[in-house]
Amino acid sequence: MNNAKMWLVVPPAVGVPVFLGAVAVGSFAVHVAVLSNTSWVADFLSGQELGSGDVAAAAMIAPEANTAKASYVVPQSDGSLEVTLILPDGTSTTALIQAPQLQPEL
User: Fold this and answer.
1) Distance, C-alpha 62 to centroid of its chain
2) Which of 15, 26, 34, 101 holds its CA 20 to 30 A away from the CA of 50?
3) In the beta sheet, which residues pair with residue 96?
4) SS3 for 93?
5) Phi and psi dihedrals of 13, rounded to 5?
């Protein structure tokens, strides 16, 4: 035994329970971290399909966004680059479509 002299300082009646207690506390801490930082473990333990907790977690983090829906009117054939947008509340606005411009190289 490599560390046999340790038992001359710490009696085995104290050292062995302290060592086993430290192993138990460390193991408990690792299990708590895994359960709180992953979703698949909870799904597995509850018998649900793996990954079903991800959908619920994603819904809580980022609820479905209410995006604006707009209609547009096709531009006239006269070559203009203006498009009329009709917003959901019935108002309309005009958008100007510009051709992409390349930046000159330095």
Assistant:
1) 9
2) 26
3) 82
4) strand
5) -65, -20
Kindly compute the dihedral angle of the four CA atoms of residues 17, 18, 21, 23, in this order, to the nearest 10 degrees: -110
Nearest residue to 84 (alpha-carbon basis) of 17, 69, 28, 74: 74
Residue 36 one-letter amino acid: S
Return the structure tokens found at 97: 């479509």
Rounded to whole angstroms, the Cα distance separating 12 from 51 reads 47
- Both structure tokens of 80: 């203009």
Contact 53, 59 (CB under 8 A): no
- For residue range 52-68, what is the model confidence (pLDDT) as tens digits? 767 666 666 655 556 65
Report which residue type is found at 67. Answer: T
Residue with tokens 């966004």: 65
Distance in angstroms (rounded) separating the CA atoms of residues 34 and 26: 12
**pLDDT for 2-36, tens place per residue?**
777 888 888 989 999 999 999 999 999 999 998 88
Summarised one tens digit per residue, pLDDT across range 33-43 is 988 888 788 77
